[in-house]
Amino acid sequence: MSQRGGIAPYLQAAPLALVFLLFLVIPLAIIVMVSFWTYTDYSIQPAFEVQNYLDVFDRCIVRLPTLCTTFRTYLSTLTFCAIVWALTLVIGFTVAYFLAFEVRSPTVQSLLFLVCTIPFWTSNVIRMISWIPLLGRSGLVNQALIGLGLIDQPIEWLLYSSFSVTITFVHLFTFFMVVPIYNSMLRIDRSLIEAARDAGASGWQILWNVIVPLSKTGIAIGSIFVITIVMGDFITIGLMGGQQIASVGKTIQTEISYLQFPVAAANAVVLLGTVLLIIVGLTRVVDIRREL
Amino acid sequence: MTTSLKSGISRRTFLKTSAAAGAAAVGSGAVTGFPYVMAQEPVTLRYLGTAVNQSKEIAEKVKADLGITIEYVPVTTDEVTKRIITQPNTFDIVDTEYFSLKKLVPSGNLMGMDAKRIKEFDNITSVFTKGELDGKKIGDQGTAPWKVFYLAGNKSKEFSPTPTEWISLIPTTYNADTLGIRPDLIKRPIESWAELLNPEFKGKASILNIPSIGIMDAAMAVEASGAYKYPDKGNMTRDEIDMTIDKLIEAKQAGQFRALWSDFNESVNLMASGETVIQSMWSPAVTAVRAKGIDCVFQPLKEGYRAWASGFALPATLEGRKLDAAYEFVNWFLSGWAGAFLNRQGYYAAVLPTAQKEMATYEWAYWMEGKPAEQEIKSPMGDIIAPKGAVRDGGSFAQRMGSVACWNAVMDEDAYMVRKWNEFVAA
Fold first, then answer.
1. In this complex, do B425 and A263 lie within 8 Å of one another by their Cβ atoms?
2. Min Cα separation A240/chain B (Å)
3. Which among B78, B106, B257 is the nearest to A257, CB-wise?
4. CA distance A39 to chain B (A)
5. Cβ of B418 and A258 within 8 Å?
6. Distance from the CA of A188 to the CA of which of A120, A268, B371, B381 falls in 20 to 30 A?
7. Smallest Cα distance from B394 to chain A, Å
8. C-alpha–C-alpha distance, residues B299 and B394, integer Å
9. Which of A72, A75, A126, A259 to mutate to test the interface with B (most CBs of B within 10 A)?
10. Phi, psi of B402 (to 5 degrees)
């Protein structure tokens, strides 16, 4: 590659930079700005006040160790995040491993990969809602268990509970783990695995010392997908949690629908900060840029 | 234009281009004030509202009767308010609830409607104009319509306590809400709002997750339990909000609620599937459950109903032919056909005499007078909703609207209430 000077590279990068500026940086700057404004029932007014942030963290310190609404909401969202991340990682990694290493023929590989995308042919919401008749009080699972004589009373916690939220999240988002991990695994040089085997490594050793480290980029990217989606979600939590489980997104949505834009913006800034912290932490562990 | 002139276009071509541009603007309807051109064009009114009144049948009938095309913009209750405040030019007529007016009127985005241009104005039920029914006062807690009915002027941002010519909303429908129950699963009479928080229905109750309405249902339940008597459930103090939310949190942590719901279909599904047996509900949702052949009752309770009312308003910027068309449409709406259509769904029409003319005697007797149905009662879409001999839940119009305890409201402490409601959801 020859060295290119001048402004050509900048011009080439300009369209994307411009798109980011217009649709990401400027809107974000506006959100941050509005989060310091004041509001009434029907208007928002420019100001520079931290009241919205004080409202977000209303009595959070005084009440400790009892958690305030915001801390409680974040704790609940972060817990979902951790559980869903762990489950999608294990399942996603296994599926990707199977596709990349157990299936030998590239045609079958692509075919099976396409099979994984089939659920995406229907809408997200429909895939979500389809769990309801399955898990409900008189749903298929309860009917089957009662029919088999295993239980007398229907199990209540199957639906509108943390359980149903988790299962739906895992169902919806595992594929976001599968894709990047599968992609990373395909790039692993097969001779490395042969070398490891020749050197006497067991199957588990190969997995742990060769495949996992070389799939790290995929794992990190998949994790970013899953974590950011779960952190911002309020539809799944609302629908499957019977709206009784709080999420930061739902709080923001309620505030927006009551025209409290500034406090919603403050909440959004706090959420953004939290997600960014998690992602910075992740990139500390895996240097995505270098490994790509 | 200045640049093109500089670049040497002759005066003649310039005139030609601007004339063409002008004509194009008129053709696209962008320029108003040419009534003789516009009158020949069909008018389209963008009708913003919740889906409640936006029936296909009504739009078709308007098209046939007036030649006006109604283009529905269906959104949720909260979204209507948001649209009026943030995008007041995206609709030509709006159907919204009276309680939202406290937020809408001060924004100046709506105009008062001229009572003199409303043909049936004097026949609008006294529920709206005076807060009376057959001379009897109706419960006025919350944002009762007569408190926000009159504006100080056409483009005024203030309400008028005394009657004026300018009306904030021309009423379309209203109703008295109560709890929906599944009598087949409860198997005993339900008479009080207190039952919503009764531990007997642990894990089988639901309350709606629209803070401003949910808190009212909760207050009805708290008051019915004898724990506290609110001076005004529709305008609580911070302490009262705290107390009410604490009661809700207590119930939630004890597992009282199976789920919370925020849209019509969710409430129907919860009830129809038996996930809940008692919950906050809306009249047409009860009808929808019944249409599935499931026993569901919109149970009248001794403490009374929580009422709501909605009506038409026009954006402050509406003018010319569209303004005339909007008045024409509102007058049509009050002239009977639409009123009968709404009455048959279980709502009430704003002008009752005209609606009565469009309904059969047996229909009027069932829906409005609380008498047993002389023949099968059908919805406007033709589904059978009540068999012969059935009586409407809650009885007659006078019985139902006469026992209203409070109205949907926007409280002075609205922002605080929403924050506390979020705490309830998070608990």
1. no
2. 9
3. B78
4. 10
5. yes
6. A120
7. 30
8. 7
9. A259
10. -70, -25
Is-contact B158 B104, C-beta < 8 A? no
Task: Provide the pLDDT for residue B349.
Answer: 93
Kindly list the structural domains of chain B, giving each domain's residue range(s) and its CATH number in brackets, ordered by start. Answer: 2-31 (no CATH), 44-176+307-357 (3.40.190.10), 179-303+396-426 (3.40.190.10)
Crossing angle of the two packed helices A248-257 and B414-426, in degrees rounded to 10: 160
B253/B203 Cα distance (integer angstroms): 11
Contact list, B82 vs chain A (CB under 8 Å): 256-257, 259
Tell me which H or E stretch contains A110. helix A106-117
Count how many Cα atoms sit within 13 Å of the Cα of residue A41 in the half-sphere of its side chain. 18
Q: What is the DSSP string of A27-91?
A: HHHHHHHHTT-EE-SS-EE-----HHHHHHTTTTTTTTTSPPHHHHHHHHHHHHHHHHHHHHHHH
What chain A holds in terms of domains, given with CATH numbers, is 68-291 (1.10.3720.10)
3-state class (DSSP) for residue B284: helix
Cα A127 to chain centroid, rounded: 17
Taking contacts as CB-CB distances below 8 angstroms, the residues of chain B near A246 are 422, 425-426
pLDDT band at A91 (very low <50, low <70, confident <90, very high): very high
Encode pLDDT of B227-282 as tens digits: 999 999 999 999 999 999 999 999 999 999 999 998 888 899 999 999 999 999 98
Contact B422, B232 (CB under 8 A): no
Of A77, A60, A65, the residue nearest A237 (C-alpha): A77
Answer yes or no: do A254 and B211 touch at CB < 8 A.
yes
Q: Which of B99, B263, B275, B280 to mutate to test the interface with A (most CBs of A within 10 A)?
A: B275
Listing DSSP states for B289-304 in one string gives: HHHTT---EEE--TT-
Q: Could you tell me the CA-to-CA distances from B370 to B133, B137, B282, B287 in Å, in that order?
A: 16, 21, 19, 16
A157 in contact with chain B, both atoms CB, cutoff 8 A:
no
% chain B with pLDDT above 70: 90
Select from B132, B170, B180 the least CA-distant residue to B148: B170
Q: How big is the CA angle at B420 (ends B416 and B423), to the nearest 5 degrees?
A: 150
Q: How far is A50 from chain B (nearest CA, A)?
A: 16
Q: Which residues of B touch A52 (CB under 8 A)?
A: none
Q: Please give, rounded to a whole number of angstroms, the shortest distance from the CA of B135 to a CA of chain A.
A: 35
Between B79 and B327, name the one with better pLDDT.
B327
The interface predicted TM-score of the complex, written ipTM, equals 0.76
The residue among A41, A134, A251, A256 with the most chain B CBs within 10 A of its CB, best to mutate, is A41
Asked if B269's CB is within 8 angstroms of A41's CB, the reply is: no
| Cβ partners under 8 Å of residue B298, min gap 6 | B178, B179, B180, B281, B283, B286, B393, B394
Quick: pLDDT tens for B338-359.
999 999 888 999 999 999 999 9
Question: Which of B415, B421, B423 has its CB closest to that of A260?
Answer: B415
Kindly indicate the confidence band of residue B8, based on its pLDDT and cuts at 50, 70 and 90.
very low
Contact by Cβ (8 Å): B206, B272: no
Measured CA to CA, the distance from residue A45 to residue B170 in angstroms comes to: 31
Helix, coil or strand: residue A154:
coil
